[in-house]
Amino acid sequence: MSLLAARLRLARALTILEALLLPPVCGGCGRRGAWLCAECAALVQRDPSARCARCDAPAPEPVSCCRGCAAWPPELLLVRAPFLFEGSVRTALHRVKYRGEHARARDLGRRLAAFAKDELAESLGTVNLVVPIPLHPSRLRQRGFNQSELLAAAVAETLGLPLVSHLVRARPTPPQVGLGREARRRNIAGAFGWSGPALCGQRVLVVDDVVTTGATLGEAARVLTAAGAAGAIGLALAREP
Ligand SMILES: [Zn+2]
Ligand SMILES: [Zn+2]
Fold this sequence. Notes:
Elements: H1 3-21, H2 38-43, E1 76-80, E2 83-84, H3 87-99, H4 102-119, H5 121-124, E3 129-132, H6 137-143, H7 147-159, E4 167-169, H8 181-188, E5 192-194, E6 204-211, H9 215-226, E7 232-239
Bound molecules: zinc ion (ZN) (2 copies).
């Protein structure tokens, strides 16, 4: 059994165990009955204003590219995120990350897949596989799971696409928090490698928990394309407002 398969089997077991022992509570308001109640989800939904078709950032009018994504590598085709990283979604993600709530991660991953089906309907037809943004092995050992992999597993399952974990962290990187756009890009440059077979024209859906400047997804897209992929589409649960 591969390492990924072993991790996913453990994650599934934990999800089932949690579902048996812990009733769902809203990550935002703590109300029972759902992992994220409709009221709390509505508060952090992306607003329906005009946006950039490539990076999804709000814009005065619809544009195909903007200052925020002009410097992205061409391999990163577009990025979408259903929620703003604040309020209930911030709390919910922190509960996944720091309390290891696997059932909550699965719920969030399914929401992410449902959003992708609506928002990326056309582009999804060209996607062959789902790849999570990896953690460095030392961080993975510390935490025991990769929250982006948990989200990606639920996305892949819901969309009926294979989940592949051959994108690896070649070196540990300091957290991106607090860094500006250019510093983030430098921090993440050379951080990833591809350990799998050549991708030979396949298109990849790259899943991360939070997108800020797109530097991490851009670097992942660059490495995937160097491994033969026909570009990457980024999908994150939340966007830093
Ligand atoms: Zn709530
Ligand atoms: Zn843009």
